[in-house]
Write a structure and sequence with these properties.
β8, α10 and β9 form a beta-alpha-beta unit. The chain has one domain: TIM Barrel (Alpha-Beta Barrel). Strands 7-4-3-2-1-10-9-8 form an eight-stranded parallel beta sheet. Strands 5-6 form a two-stranded antiparallel sheet. The protein is built from twelve helices and ten strands. By secondary structure, the chain is of the alpha/beta class.
Length: about 375
């Protein structure tokens, strides 16, 4: 429930950011000069800070740039197989992905894109399809009343039935944004080089289940996707799905996978852990326990924290200090990048409660800028 509450707060924040937002010029209409200007405006990919983003459009990316970040991780993003290809053998529709890329590149922001391997028409071919369905109250199911262009996840969430069709989807996706001049998105200013294989397969609960299979099955998905991405772009980097936390209840999923399928440690380039305000004991966004878990399997990949927050204080001031401490400690433990889950530092923690009714979540951009400046 707490994660659902925080997700709703994030969505509300992004609605405020996106209200009245001009989505800007279509990438296909950009001149060569404009594409060149966007390329030169790209924030250095070595920048260590990013945000989980949603429906805020170009204003969201401008805010990241203003705060001092350089990265965005659109969630859910546009790389959902069912959205890109909604029928067997159908054409690929990259409209939503293109819009995300266009808006981010207008601000010079780099992207980490999550690949979602689910398409209803493909899942229907599985003999165990009934076991792949998530409950009807899952927060990412498509619902009537959603606006055109909003993303979703299908109800059935198991590994692809047709691995060749999935391979073709992943290759087409990565090829469109790899910047090699072959089948690239019109107006692409700089490439996307980082791809994440789904999200939190270890998390299963009321209203939020991303994956319906076992650690061994996820190892199959990870290996297939890793190879598919590399088939399209050898320079691309693949992230394993983010662990939902650093507690044994989450890390056991990956320990089981690495134990049962030892070669899976070679199926990703970058480790990935999340912290939804559950690092009170260590204050390092769960980097140390995750790093120790990888070490037990002789996996020495770098680590990104792709969902980070420390909103367990009783005031915004306490949350600012907790965020500073966790950020510093995570970087000290070896995290290469940190993606915060929200632009606000109020609410969510024990004793702090949500913002007053009718006020909406606060955009604490000045405070986040100060946090990042204090780290740099």
């Amino acid at each position: 429930m707490r994660k659902l509450f925080l997700s709703l707060l994030l969505i509300a924040a992004l609605v405020i950011l996106g209200a009245g937002c001009d989505q800007g010029q279509d990438a296909a209409d950009l001149s060569e000069t404009e594409v060149s200007e966007r390329s030169s405006n790209q924030i250095d990919p070595a920048n260590q800070f990013g945000w989980l983003t949603g429906g805020g459009g170009d204003e969201e990316y401008e805010l990241i740039r203003d705060i001092g970040g350089g990265w965005a991780r659109p969630h859910l993003g546009g790389a959902v197989w069912d959205i890109v290809q909604n029928e067997e053998g159908g054409d690929y529709d990259f409209e939503i992905m293109d819009e995300i890329v266009n808006d981010s590149q207008a601000a010079g922001v780099n992207l980490l894109i999550t690949i979602w391997p689910f398409a209803e028409w493909d899942q229907a071919g599985r003999s165990d399809v009934a076991n792949c369905a998530v409950p009807g109250n899952d927060e990412f199911l498509p619902r009537s009343g959603k606006e055109v262009g909003e993303t979703y996840l299908p109800q059935h969430r198991c590994n692809p039935n047709d691995w060749q069709a999935y391979h073709d989807f992943v290759v087409a996706l990565v090829e469109r944004y790899d910047g090699d001049g072959i089948n690239d998105m019109p107006g692409l200013a700089y490439p996307i080089k980082y791809w994440e294989v789904m999200n939190e397969p270890d998390l299963s609960g009321p209203g939020l289940t991303f994956y319906k299979q076992t650690p061994r099955d996820y190892a199959d998905l990870l290996e297939h996707t890793y190879n598919d991405v590399k088939d399209a772009d050898l320079e691309a980097q693949v992230l394993i799905a983010g662990a939902a936390g650093g507690d044994p209840e989450f890390l056991q999923f990956y320990e089981t996978m690495f134990t049962e399928v030892p070669q899976s440690t070679s199926s990703f380039d970058i480790g990935n852990v999340h912290c939804i305000s559950n690092d009170q004991a260590t204050q390092d966004f769960n980097v140390k326990p995750y790093q120790e878990m990888l070490g037990r399997f002789n996996a020495d990949q770098s680590i990104w924290v792709t969902e980070a927050e420390a909103l367990y204080g009783n005031s915004k001031e306490a949350n600012i200090e907790n965020t500073k401490t966790s950020t510093r400690n995570a970087l000290s433990e070896g995290a290469e990048k940190i993606f915060y889950t929200t632009f606000m530092l109020t609410g969510g923690g024990p004793g702090s409660g949500p913002p007053p009714p009718g006020t909406g979540p606060e955009m604490d951009s000045a405070e986040f800028k100060e946090i990042i400046n204090s780290i740099n």
